[in-house]
Write a structure and sequence with these properties.
This protein has 112 residues and is an alpha+beta fold. It has one domain (12-110): SH3 type barrels, CATH 2.30.30.100. It is built from two helices and five strands, in the order αβββαββ. It has helices spanning 12-24, 67-79; strands at 30-35, 40-48, 54-63, 91-100, 105-110. It has a five-stranded antiparallel β-sheet with strand order 4-3-2-1-5, with no helix packed on it. A hairpin with a 4-residue loop joins strand 1 and strand 2 (40-48). The longest helix is centred in the N-terminal third of the chain and has 13 residues, at 12-24. This is Sm domain-containing protein. Pfam families: LSM. One of its GO terms (cellular component) is NatC complex.
Length: 112
Amino acid sequence: MATESVSALPTPVEESQKASEYLACFLNKSLHIHTNDGRMFVGQLKCTDNERNVILSMTYEYRQPSESDIKFAAAKHEKSGNTGNVKVDMKKRFVGLVVVPGQYITKIELDG
């Protein structure tokens, strides 16, 4: 039976340092942060904390189109005589420096 040496396990300080180094490689990189209300924020990572709050700079907020926008696009699509699916873009606005509360974040992606 193999046993692991206690000294082979990383200490909490080592784990914390490793996590900090990992997060540091994302500083100033563009992230896509999805929230549980359907919004997406795209901006540069500036900071995070133990509660998973994220601060982004140069940020754009994307929202799902409203029902009236969808109906308008569908009517315009029908008038043009096109068949097939109607595509409606998300609404976009510049919001600058934002704090995205960690409790609402559902997904984080690195902008490729």
